[in-house]
Amino acid sequence: MTAAQGVLSGLRLVEAAAFVAAPLGGMTLAQMGADVIRIDPLEGGLDYRRWPVTEDNTSLFWCGLNKSKRSVALNLATEEGRELAMAIACAPGDDAGMFLTNFPARGWLDHEKLKARRPDLIQLTLQGDRHGGSAVDYTVNPRLGVPLFTGDPASDEPVNHVLPAWDLITGQMVAVGLLAAERHRRRTGEGQHIKLSLQDVGLAVMGHLGFIAEAQLGNPRERHGNELFGAFGRDFVCRDGVRVMVVGLTGKQWRSIAQATQLEVPLQQLGERLGLDLSEEGNRFRARAGIAQLVGEWMARLDFKDVATAFDRHGVCWTRYQSIAQLVNDDPECSPANPLFAKVDQPGVGEVLAPGIPLRFDARMRVPPAAAPKLGEHTEQVLAQLAGIDAAQFGRLHDRGIVR
Amino acid sequence: MTAAQGVLSGLRLVEAAAFVAAPLGGMTLAQMGADVIRIDPLEGGLDYRRWPVTEDNTSLFWCGLNKSKRSVALNLATEEGRELAMAIACAPGDDAGMFLTNFPARGWLDHEKLKARRPDLIQLTLQGDRHGGSAVDYTVNPRLGVPLFTGDPASDEPVNHVLPAWDLITGQMVAVGLLAAERHRRRTGEGQHIKLSLQDVGLAVMGHLGFIAEAQLGNPRERHGNELFGAFGRDFVCRDGVRVMVVGLTGKQWRSIAQATQLEVPLQQLGERLGLDLSEEGNRFRARAGIAQLVGEWMARLDFKDVATAFDRHGVCWTRYQSIAQLVNDDPECSPANPLFAKVDQPGVGEVLAPGIPLRFDARMRVPPAAAPKLGEHTEQVLAQLAGIDAAQFGRLHDRGIVR
User: Fold this and answer.
1) What is the dihedral of CA B380, B384, B387, B389, to 10 degrees?
2) CB-CB under 8 Å, A168 with B215
3) What pTM was computed for the model?
4) How confident is the model over A305-342, as pLDDT tens digits?
5) Size of interface A-B (CB pairs under 8 A)
6) Cα(B83)–Cα(B402) distance, rounded to whole angstroms?
7) How close, in Å, is residue B396 to chain A by CA atoms?
8) Closest-approach residue (CA) in chain A for B233
9) CATH 3.40.50.10540 fits A3-207+338-399, yes or no
10) How far is the first Cα of chain A from the last one, in angstroms, to the nearest whole number?
11) Which of B208, B319, B326 sits opposite A64 (nearest CB)?
12) For B108-210, where are the alpha helices, taking DSSP H only?
C-alpha cells in the first residue's frame, strides 16, 4: 500500500464483488489512495478466471480491475468465515464502514444484518435491473436499442459494442455514490443503503443524450455508420490505405478542415448549391455526402504523412485508426512516457504496463499504479488489524480451512 | 431548485463547459442536490445547438445534459462580464469554491487568476489529450483500436461506436474527482487544480480491462462480432424473426441455458467430443461454434414468446433486441412506471420523459428530475446572491449588453 499520500488517504472500503462495474468502482477509490479490501471465497470469486487469461490461466481481467486493493480470502460457506467478513466490513473508524457489493443482498451481505453491527454503515448494492433481476452489459445494450443503430447503414444486422460501456459508466457512478454518501455521513452521522442498477444507468444515459426525447418526438436515431450525427465527421482512407477519422463539430474545427484541405471555395460553392449555410453544424450534417466527396477526393490524392502534416499544421481534430497492437507497440501515449502508466510486477503475469487514475491531482497526492494482490495476500494482515485475530488464532483458522 | 433534500445539498459547483463529459459531470452533482451554476456566453455556448434538435432548433442534447442546473448568461467578451464570472466562481462559502471547465485554462479560466481570488478553489479542467491538444470521443476511440475489433469478423472495416462511451465514463470521473478533492479540502483546507484528459481515461480503461496486457503478451483482441469474449454469449433469431441476446458467463447462467433449452445431454456430448469441460467458462468460448449451432437450432424451432417463457422459467440472463422506438413506446422500464423517470416540462420542448440520477439513496434524499434551465434564467438571481448586484445595477448591466 502506497496510499499514504493519496487524496482519499485514510478512507476504507470493503468490497465483495465481481466482474467490471463494482470492482472498477472500488479500484477507482483505491487508485486515489483509499484502503480497499476485497473479500473473496477461498477459491476466488466468479470472475477470478475471467478472460483474457495468461497461458497458465491467470486472469488479466481480474488483475486489471483489482489493482491497488488488499485481498482477503475466506471460506464464506462457513458461519465462521461469514462472521469474519462481517467483522471486516463493519470495523470501527470514522473513515471506515463503507461496503460495496454486486451480489444479492442476502446472507452476510444483508444490509439489515450489517447495519445491526454498525448503524452508520454505508452500503452500495449494485444490481442488474432495479427489481433485482439478472442483467449484464451484454443484455442491457440490446434492450436499449444501441446495436440496431451501430454499424453500416446498408445492413440491418445488430452490432454489439465490444467495450462494456454501461459497466464502465456504472463503475464510476459507484465511486460517485460512495463519496456522496460519505460526505453526507460526515455532516449528519447517517449511513444508508444505496442501490444502483446497471439497466437504470443505461436508461438514464439514453435520456441525458437526447435519444429518448428524439424518439418521443417521432424521430428515433437512425444508423449513420461511421458518421458523426448532427455535424461533420467521418472516416476517410488516404492514398496509401491508412484510415483517418476527421471531426468538424465546432466552428473552429470545421474551418480548420477547410483550410487544411484548401477546400474553402468548393465547400462554399457546395453550400450555395444546396442552399445551406455550412457554418451551422446541423447544415454540415445535411450536406455530409457532398462534403465527404470533396474531402475524400483530397485525401485519396495524398499519402498519410502528407495528410497528417496538413491537418496538424491547421489544428484539425483528427486521428489515425490504429489496432490495439499498434497502440501498445507504437504509441508513446500508451507507454511509461505517459505518467498515467507504470510498469508493475503483477504476480502470476510478470511485468505489465499498468494505468493509474487519470485524474491528475496535485503532485503530492498522486498514487502510482500498483499491482493487483495475490488472492488472500492480506488475509492475515487484515484479520489482525480489523478483527483482532492473532497469529496463533490465524494458524488455527487456516488449518481448519476457514482462511487462506 | 428542489435541491434542499439531496445527498449533496449545500454543495455548489460553477461550470463553464460544453458537450458531453464536463456538463454530465456537473449534472451528476446537480441531480444529487448540489447547486450547479452554468455560465454561458449571451448567445449560448458551443453546444447550445447540438443535435438532436427540435423543429425550432432547441437542442435536446443541451437540455438533456443540463438538467437541474441554474443558468447564468454573461457577455464574456467584455472585461466586466469576465469579472462577474470570476466573482461567481470564487464566491465565498465552505461548500462553494468548486469550478469545472473543459475550455483551455486561460483568460478568466486561468487557475492562477481564480486562485488569487480564492486560494482554496478546487478547479477541474477537462482536456482532450494531456498535452492540451484537441481530442474528442470520436477521435479517441479510433486511436484506442476499438473500431477495428467491433462488428462482423468477416469484414475489416472499422465500426465506430455510436454511444460516446469515453465521454460518459469521463463525465462520471469528473464528479468523482470533484468529490474526492472536496473531501480533501474539508480535511486540510487545501484546494487544487485537477486535470483530466479524455484520452487518458480511454487509455486507463484499455489497461484495466486487460486489452493492453493481452496485446503486450502477443494476443491482441480479435473481432468476435456479437459474441461475448471468453465465455458463451451471442445473438440468435427465433422462428418468428425476433432476435435475442443470451449470456452464459457464470456457471449458473450457463446451467440455466442448458436447462431452458433442454440441451443438457447434447451439450455434454459436445464437450466430450471436443475434449472440453464446458463448466469452465473459457471452454465455452472455445466450443462456441458447436454450442451456437445447438442453441440456434432450438431457437429456430420456437416463436419468441415460447423462447421467452422457457428462458424466464429457468432464470436465463437474456434480452430481446429492440429499437429505440420500441424502448420508448413499449418498454415500461422507460416510462414513469420506473421511478428513475419523471415527466418534466422542458422550456422550448414541451413535456419530456426525464431521467434523474440512477443512484437510489435513502428516500428522504432523492431529488426528482428537473428540467434544464432557459439560457440566462438565473442570471439576475445568481448575481444578486453571489456578486451583490441589486436590481438597479442588473438593469444597467442588461441595457449595456453585459448580462442576459
Assistant:
1) 80
2) no
3) 0.98
4) 999 999 999 999 999 999 999 999 999 999 999 999 99
5) 464
6) 11
7) 32
8) A138
9) yes
10) 20
11) B208
12) 111-117, 137-144, 165-188, 198-208
CB B276 within 8 A of CB B283: yes
| Dist CA A185 CA A115 (whole Å) | 14
Cell numbers 435519444 correspond to: A211
Phi, psi of A353 (to 5 degrees): -85, 110
ipTM over 0.85: yes
| Cross-chain residue pair A317–B135, CB shorter than 8 Å | yes
Q: Which of B134, B182, B321 sits opposite A158 (nearest CB)?
A: B321
B256 near A24, Cβ under 8 Å?
Answer: no
Q: Which three cell numbers stand for residue A141?
A: 445494450
- At the fourth CATH level, which superfamily is domain B232-320? formyl-coa transferase, domain 3 (3.30.1540.10)
Domain(s) labelled CATH 3.30.1540.10 in chain A stretch across 232-320
- CATH 3.40.50.10540 residue ranges in chain B? 3-207+338-399
C-alpha–C-alpha distance, residues A100 and A97, integer Å = 10
The pLDDT of B247-272, averaged and rounded, is 98
What is the tens place of the pLDDT at every residue in B159-199? 999 999 999 999 999 999 999 999 999 999 999 999 999 99
Sequence-distant contacts of A236-240: CB under 8 A, at least 24 apart: A236/A292, A236/A295, A236/A296, A236/A299, A237/A299, A237/A300, A238/A299, A238/A300, A238/A302, A238/A303, A238/A304, A238/A307, A239/A299, A239/A300, A239/A301, A239/A302, A239/A303, A239/A304, A240/A303, A240/A304
Grouping H, G, I as helix, E, B as strand and the rest as coil, residue B235 is strand
Cis before B52? omega within 30? yes
